[in-house]
Design brief:
Pfam families: Na_H_Exchanger. Keywords: Antiport, Ion transport, Membrane, Transmembrane, Transmembrane helix, Transport. Its main location: membrane. It is found in: Cell membrane. It is a single chain. The protein has 432 residues and is mostly helical. The protein has a single domain, classed as Na+/H+ antiporter like fold. Helix content is 79%, strand content 0%. The chain is globular and about 55 Å long.
């Protein structure tokens, strides 16, 4: 019987959702978090069995609805995860989080880029694209892990804060890299404009400030507007429609003017999560977005495994393993120690001790944002006929897939052990 292409694509979508549901009971029986199970499912039903096609996985992740399930899912994930931002931890450790999300991110992008270029022979700018993509850490992986083990609030709060706020920075670094590689593409139009008028240094600084300050202010304002609107009108169960509608409006409007929308989305989620009145309808709003976020993560991580082909698995598995270990055990510790140690000379800022730095340097799983960004160079190269991005696009997203998979699996295994070794029964709130 003949099945149309559209019908088969819906079969694939339904199949992805069904196999995602099995990740929870399987991970529960295996006593692990569900994300590695989802990725393995993607590998099995994608390149191994061919039930989820490579082309459809890339289309769904990066082009569905013109923006892709990846970006739309990221909107939901960041909005929900930002409900968990702890203002007390954020205020107390703001300097350290900011340092990890600036100095640490740049060190990660440059360091990983250097290793990528050396190992592949690619130009450094291509390596920098890879480094920018894998620079954000993942709150979706950290939060479930920290729920299973007891880690001091200052350490866990700083790591979660870093992972929430470094997502927009990773996108900004990738935008800068794309602009330097292919200045004519629309993806980096705003940075190209600033770069041409003010130069690389001032252009980068002004672009960074514009991409963070403007959307953050908008997100804070809309967060309080949502709260006050609900107090006046009482939307009850349709509160979920109001919040989701405004978040999607933020995303669409800021994207349209080439400004990264994710600081706005994170700010709105943080305001709603901390300043709403916690009525039954706000609890339902949180539960709804938690489930929606979980479903988005499930689809994205299954697609992560499915976008690889059998040839890429064979050709890049050794390279992917090597670059993953370098990112986890060389680049991440270097970035953490360098960005946190600058405060050791100040008497007015609370410092992390060596044990805490070691733990934080070994905890930094990559996740949703790198997955979503991994196909951007290849897609832009294909759409705008940019040879260098087409040439290296496949190895970039294949390498990112291995870094995400290996970092999550390894850190799921060893984080509880190093937590007990380094901290033992020390469960205090902070360090001196």
């Amino acid at each position: 019987m003949f099945i149309s292409t559209i019908t088969y694509e819906y079969y694939e979508i339904s199949f992805i959702l069904i196999i995602a549901a099995f990740s929870i009971p399987i991970s529960r029986k295996a006593s692990t978090v569900y994300i590695p199970v989802l990725i393995v499912f993607g590998l099995i039903f994608g390149p191994v069995l061919g039930l989820i096609s490579h082309g459809f996985a890339i289309y769904l992740l990066s082009s569905f609805g013109t923006v892709g399930i990846g970006l739309l899912g990221l909107v939901i994930i960041l909005y929900y995860e930002s409900h968990n931002i702890n203002p007390r931890i954020l205020r107390r450790y703001l300097y350290k989080i900011a340092s990890l999300d600036t100095i640490g991110m740049v060190i990660t992008a440059v360091g990983a880029g250097i290793f990528f270029s050396i190992l592949t022979g690619a130009p450094f700018i291509i390596g920098f694209l890879f480094g920018a993509i894998i620079s954000p850490t993942d709150p979706a992986s950290l939060i479930p892990t920290f729920k299973k083990i007891k880690i001091r609030d200052d350490v866990s709060g700083t790591l979660i804060g870093e992972s929430l706020f470094n997502d927009p920075l990773g996108i900004i670094l990738l935008t800068i890299g794309i602009a330097l590689t292919a200045p004519s593409v629309s993806y980096s139009m705003l940075f190209t404009f600033l770069y041409n008028h003010t130069g690389i240094i001032f252009g980068s600084i002004s672009f960074l400030m514009l991409e963070i300050a403007v959307p953050s202010a908008i997100g804070i304002g809309l967060g309080f507007i949502i709260i006050y609107l609900n107090r006046y009108f009482n939307f009850e169960n349709l509160l979920v429609a109001l919040t989701l509608g405004i978040v999607l409006f933020e995303f669409t409007s800021l994207q349209a003017i080439s400004i990264t929308p994710f600081p706005a989305i994170i700010a709105t989620g943080a305001i709603v999560g901390n300043y709403s009145d916690k009525s039954i309808f706000w609890n339902r709003e949180t539960s709804f977005n938690e489930n929606l976020s979980f479903m988005a993560q499930s689809v994205i991580f299954i697609l992560l495994g499915s976008i690889l082909t059998r040839v890429q698995l064979i050709n890049y598995i050794f390279f992917g393993f090597i670059i993953s270990l370098l990112v986890i055990f060389v680049i991440r510790p270097l970035a953490v120690f360098a960005s946190l140690s600058i405060f050791d000379f100040s008497k007015n800022i609370i410092k992390f001790d060596t044990r805490s730095k070691i733990f934080m340097s070994l905890v930094g799983p990559r996740g949703v944002v790198p997955v979503v960004l991994s196909t951007v160079p290849f897609v832009i190269g294909s759409q705008d006929h940019i040879k260098i991005l087409i040439q290296y696009g496949a190895i970039i997203y294949a390498s990112v897939s291995f870094v995400v998979l290996i970092s999550i699996i390894l850190q799921t295994i060893y984080v509880p052990y190093i937590g007990r070794i380094l901290f033992g029964d020390d469960k205090g709130d902070e360090v001196s």
